[in-house]
Amino acid sequence: MPIKLKHRLGGTSKKCFLLISWGACLLSLSPYAWNQETTEWKIRVSAMSASIRLKPDLESPVIATLPKGTSLNSYEAEGDWFRVVLPPGKDGIVVIGYIAKSEVQVLEEKIKKQTDFWQVEEGGFKGLGFHLMLSGGWALFPSGDIDRGAKGLYNIGAEAIAARGVDILERNTKPLRSALNLSGDIIYDLGPKIGIGIGFGYIHTLGIDTFRYSERKVYENTMNSATDLTVLTFRLGAFYALPIGRLFHIRLNAGPAIFITNLDYNRNGQGSNFEESYSLIGKTTNFGFQGGVRLEIRIVERASLFFEVQGRTAKISDFKGSDHLVRRENSLPLPTIDNSGTLYYLPDNPYPRLAVFPEGSSDARGAQKAVFDFTGAALLAGLHIRF
To answer: Same domain, yes or no, for 75 and 201?
Structure first.
């Protein structure tokens, strides 16, 4: 009766098993593992008859005898012996044994070297020299005056509603620190490792702050404060490739960039006898600097996957725009307030805020032009296609 053995791995055993598995994987990827050579021989029996022995030893039993002129293939040699595999006979048995080198003539010897994926590709891809790179990920930045000023506008609106004696249910704010980042580059090779290119990027984020409240525990309302920020980037760059194998490349890039920034802020609140709507927009174009490091992994001759870390230096200011305030009290409209000009940041206490004033206005005294701090990093993944 067969006996089944069952062994359960404990915590320590599992860790050892994982370590051994990872070690085996790393060993299989090592240059030594990929740099093995195999040899194939085509041989023919030159003696009147040749013995196939069980082991590479003259004292080993003879398991088959071959006549002169028999052709064989061997894929392994041991000392003065070739290891051979004889085709199955009538009984279907395959014979594996050793034949002495002195009894055969070598007709052909082939040395095969397995592909070394860590070896730099010689010659490289031959094409038009154009590259298209498309990627997506997240941009990270401190934001600066824009986030602080938008949070101040939210808090001012929330405090104005709270002063009416409403019941506060929830206050929730979201920092404006990250954004969706889509980008692309077109590169032309000037040499095997150096290229120049143009790129574009689309960065967008939407931060929504909410203030939930009720009046006389009957009417539940929400004041929403939304900061919608979009940055379009256009850049020139120099690209330098560092091949580290047939499969892997590191590509460095750096260059000046143009940042076209659009800001759209809205705040809306209402109750049984009041209503308020405030909006602010601003737009500006500034220059900065952008660079990155990409790790590319070749999947086919013309295409690679890549992961990139980008860095930016950009202090974006001098927004031109307008703001608009509409209010209602007890069903009666109050005067509408409209301003157009430059976007300022007012470090008021307790809540700093954003505001738009005409250039040189006395209302802007003590204020500073609002700065969107876009200096930061981006984490991207994408596809590289070569033409």
So the answer is: no
